[in-house]
Design a protein that fits this description.
Elements (H helix, E strand, L loop, with lengths): L9 E4 L2 E9 L2 E6 L4 E4 L13 H12 L3 H6 E2 L1 E3 L15 E3 L6 H7 L3 H4 L1 E2 L5 E2 L1 E6 L5 E5 L6 E7 L3 E4 L2 E5 L1
Antiparallel strand pairs: 1-2, 2-3, 3-14, 4-13, 5-14, 6-7, 8-9, 10-11, 11-12
Length: 173
């Protein structure tokens, strides 16, 4: 049951399986266990940050709105810190308030420190790299988690290319 969820558990929510990354104050930080789809971080090949990217608009619009009323009521609107890329200096942009988000470089390194745990598959069993919300080496790239190794790639991938999507959120237990 989600109410007794602990770190590492898989829970069902909104038609997806979610991995519990953390539990604090009656809330759980969860991420989809699998890649739920592949899409671009941003449709246009341009400098972009999490605040203004197409993937954020999709996750907090169409994806969030696909949940039923009772499920939506459990999703916690969260202040998201969007730090600059520490290795390359690319600006992270303004902090945001989101229901659904992607992990940052720091969060991915914290919660997937065992790199094999960062390796992700889609529902058909195919390996995929997956997007992080942090900027890559420059703002035409976003950081990713590598498909084969599970390593966080700070330099990132061009934003207009497809990458795996693993939404994350804080959920009231």
């Amino acid at each position: 049951k989600a109410a007794s969820a602990k770190k590492g558990d898989i829970i069902k929510f909104g038609g997806y399986d979610w991995r519990v990354l953390d539990v604090k104050d009656g809330k759980a930080l969860i991420i989809t266990d699998k890649i739920i789809e592949t899409r671009a971080y941003n449709e246009k090949f341009t400098d972009v940050t999490w605040e203004i990217c197409d993937l954020r608009a999709y996750l907090n619009g169409e994806f969030y709105n696909s949940f039923g009323k009772s499920d939506k009521a459990r999703v916690v609107k969260t202040k998201i810190s969007n730090k600059d890329n520490r290795q390359f200096g690319a600006p992270g942009g303004k902090d945001t308030d989101d229901y659904i988000f992607l992990l940052s470089i720091d969060e991915a390194k914290e919660y997937f420190s065992d790199f094999a745990a960062g390796v992700a598959y889609d529902s058909k069993g195919n390996l995929h790299l997956w997007w992080l919300r942090s900027p890559g080496a420059v703002n035409i790239c976003a950081a990713i988690v590598d498909s084969g190794s599970g390593f966080v790639i700070d330099a990132g991938r061009y934003v207009y290319l497809d990458g795996g999507v693993r939404p994350a959120m804080w959920l009231t237990l």
